[in-house]
Amino acid sequence: xxxxxxxxxxxxxxxxxxxxxxxxxxxxxxxxxxxxxxxxxxxxxxxxxxxxxxxxxxxxxxxxxxxxxxxxxxxxxxxxxxxxxxxxxxxxxxxxxxxxxxxxxxxxxxxxxxxxxxxxxxxxxxxxxxxxxxxxxxxxxxxxxxxxxxxxxxxxxxxxxxxxxxxxxxx
Length: 171
What we know:
- The strands form two sheets. Strands 1, 2, 3, 4, 5, 6, 7, 10 and 11 form a nine-stranded mixed sheet that branches. Strands 8-9 form a two-stranded antiparallel ribbon.
- The two termini are 16 Å apart.
- Helix content is 26%, strand content 30%.
- It is an alpha+beta fold and 171 residues long.
- A hairpin with a 4-residue loop joins strand 3 and strand 4.
- It has a single domain (7-167), classed as Glutaredoxin (3-Layer(aba) Sandwich), CATH 3.40.30.
């Protein structure tokens, strides 16, 4: 069996993405069929996150920049659809890799999709608003639109890039 530095690869246990319908930051729909033909890293977070999201997104960006021109994209799925409008997500994802999609939608649809992948999030009320506790992992989707693995924190760009190279047969 192949050894990976950072990924837990599901191999024969890879499974098709569950049915879902969300909205990309450019207003287009995002469904499982849209994942065919390229690799994707799914990260659940929110643009107002005070600590995890921006560094994690930067680490994923660095990993993809290390790889150069390859068919991999980052899909940032907001767990805070109240504040993360398509416009807010357009501004946010503009700070990261150009092949990054911001995704939002109905809170129930996001929660259902996250739960089926095993991504956790929970809204925590504060005296002055709220925060959203959430997973810090990046889920790997293969070109057949299957959940193929997961990268758990800490997200190390060099190790992620090396694992993606192996998975894509570029090593």
